[in-house]
Structure formats: C-alpha cells, structure tokens
C-alpha cells in the first residue's frame, strides 16, 4: 500500500501514539525526507496564498503607485517574508502573524505543529533504534536477484542463503530469504 505525504501527515496528526509509531516504523527509511517534502510544500502553500491574497486585495488598484519615501524595497520585503515563514515553520511559531492573509490559517497551524511533532518523535525513535545492540538489530530482506546478492558481497557484507550471517558492518546481522 502506497501512502502519499499528505495522507501520511493527516494520519500522523490525527493518530494516537501507537499509530504514529507504526507510521514511523513503516516509513523509517524515507521518513525524514517525507517530512522535509511536506515542510517545503507547506512553506510554498503559505507563501503562494499570501502573495495571491495580497494581489487580490489590491485588484482595485490601477497599478499606479507613488513612492512617498526612499525606503521601499519590494525585493527585500519578499526575501524577509520568505525567511520569516521558513523560520516560523522551523521554530513552530504560529503567533507571529505569519499566517495572516492565508486561506486556512488554522489548518496551516495544525500542519506546523504536526511537522514539529513528526521530527521530535522520529528523533526519539531513531535514538532508541541506534541504542540497540548489534544482535538485537536485524534487517530482514527478501530477494530473488543474484545481482543484488553480488552487490552485497562486493560491499563486504557476508551473504548466505536461508541462514544468519555476520559482517564487520555496524548492522551486523541480516536474514535473506532467497
């Protein structure tokens, strides 16, 4: 079953502790990348909504602007806004008015909190996993490909069909079903 990043985040945000653990476990190898993708998507969504709503608000404007001071710098304002949005997401700061002029500030606030929770809980999961001794940490692989088995051998990982094997690598036990 394939799960999209939006479904993952929605499931994670509404799930209990066991369901969140299962989502991390099932997506462990790509979990940080999924969180990064969702964070980038949320950043772009917030930025685009703010820009669109700002333009929509100024639709009655005829396009003629008179500069009344020498301190107007639209490029700098846009850059500062981008940095502020990114920092607000990273720091989980939803009180600074960064969500003002977005279409759904409450959903964005929930998504920001969910991202922070995902990162925190993944870090805990990963630290516990890395604390396991070598004989407790097992990688179970299923393969039918001789090329894959030869690639493992070339990396110095001992390969044996249908029994335990050891190598000098940090992940020192694996079981191959071939």
Task: Compose a concise summary of this entry.
This protein has six helices and three strands, in the order H-H-H-H-H-E-H-E-E.
Radius of gyration: 24 Å
Strand line-up of the largest beta sheet? 1-3-2
- Principal-axes geometry comes out as elongated
Low-confidence stretches: 162-178
The secondary-structure class comes to mainly alpha
Mean pLDDT across the residues is 76
How many helices in DSSP terms?
6
Order of helices and strands: HHHHHEHEE
Q: What's the domain count? A: 2
Beta-strand percent range: 5-15%
Biggest sheet details: 3 strands, mixed
Percent helix among the residues?
Answer: 55-70%
Please count the beta strands (DSSP E, at least 2 residues each).
Answer: 3
What distance lies between the first and last C-alpha atoms, to the nearest angstrom?
23 Å
Structure commentary:
The chain is built from six helices and three strands. It is mainly alpha-helical and 178 residues long. It folds into two domains: 5-131, no CATH class; 139-177, no CATH class. Strands 1-3-2 form a three-stranded mixed sheet, with no helix packed on it. A hairpin with a 6-residue loop joins β2 (165-166) and β3.
List the helices and strands and how they pair.
Layout: H1 5-14, H2 17-26, H3 31-57, H4 74-91, H5 105-131, E1 139-142, H6 146-154, E2 165-166, E3 173-177
Parallel strand pairs: 1-3
Antiparallel strand pairs: 2-3
Helix pairs in contact: 3-4, 3-5
